[in-house]
Amino acid sequence: MLIGKSRDVRPSEITPRDAYLHRRGLLAGIGAVGLGALAGGADATAATLIAAKSALSTTEPMTLLKDVTSYNNYYEFGTDKGDPASNASTLKTAPWSVVIDGMVAKPATLTLEDMLKPVSLEERIYRMRCVEGWSMVIPWDGFPLADLLKRVEPLGSAKFVAFETVVRPAEMSGQRGVFQPLPWPYREGLRLDEAMHPLTIIATGLYGEPLPNQNGAPLRLVVPWKYGFKGIKSIVRISLVDKMPETSWQQQNKSEYGFYSNVNPAVDHPRWSQATERRIGEGGLSAKRRPTLPYNGYGEQVASLYAGMDLKANF
Ligand SMILES: Nc1nc2c(c(=O)[nH]1)N[C@H]1C(S)=C(S)[C@@H](COP(=O)(O)O)O[C@H]1N2
Ligand SMILES: [Mo]
């Protein structure tokens, strides 16, 4: 029934029951007989994942689920694009909790369930532009980071938000090798106004399913106008601070990776041009690269955050 056509349909355009079947079909690639068997078993988990459509979504064609889940950067599981899909299943993502601390009136340690209880999930179909020069269009399910931050009541002194990924060498193969590509924990940061922007989300799913481990289960940051590495995965700590926090990529190479990391075709990486990008799934190596857009095409919404700033100095 839905199989074969599934990618032409947006999760938000179909009914909850169909959505459940549709997602099963997408993930498992099962036939109509299998679907029939599953139809009786729609569960509560599936229901919580029904996300409302958002006007902030792009209508561009979405990248195939198979590409979104097999071509990844998640260095805790290795540096090759296929490593996270092969290795990340060892990460135990339940139970999970996140510490929210620093300059807030109500610091909290929230279980994933506590965090999700008051939020309604939205589908956000965003472009994602990796600093390496490739891009995808991904239908995330998530909620605005602003909603979470408001719950803990940031103090007036808070100017930045610092994020950390879990550190678990026993479960993360890339943290065990002799060669360590980055200092752990993986750290990222945003200015508080960037963190509060309505485009900035915490994603807990994609394509209507819980986040696959290789994409940052159980929760990761998505900031669509910045290079993909700002989208820190498997978050365990969110700290409100008054000084610009140092990120892992800055620690690894300050001259190549800045704090802001806004997508900018006019500011090249020291080792390659950022003027164009390869959209994953568009033809082979011969496929034409497409021009990269300032702020990854989200300039109308976010350019005002950087009014008067020198974007070459603040790369
Ligand atoms: N903890 C952690 N988060 C991370 C990374 C990483 O190596 N570790 N890679 C980043 C990079 S470079 C990109 S492009 C995106 C990739 O997200 P995706 O694999 O879901 O497409 O995750 C970002 N988040
Ligand atoms: Mo990236």
Mean residue pLDDT: 88
Count of DSSP H/I helices: 10
SSE sequence, one letter per element: HHHEHHEEHEEHEEHEEEEHEEH
Bound small-molecule species: the ligand Nc1nc2c(c(=O)[nH]1)N[C@H]1C(S)=C(S)[C@@H](COP(=O)(O)O)O[C@H]1N2, molybdenum atom
Radius of gyration: 19 Å
Structural class: alpha+beta
CATH architecture tag:
Alpha-Beta Complex
Unreliable spans are: 1-47
> What is the CATH homologous superfamily assignment?
Oxidoreductase, molybdopterin-binding domain
CATH level 3 topology: Sulfite Oxidase, Chain A, domain 2
Strand coverage percent: 15-25%
Q: What is the number of strand segments?
A: 13
Cα(first) to Cα(last) distance is 48 Å
What summary fits the major beta sheet?
A: 8 strands, mixed
How many domains, as an integer? 1
CATH class designation:
Alpha Beta
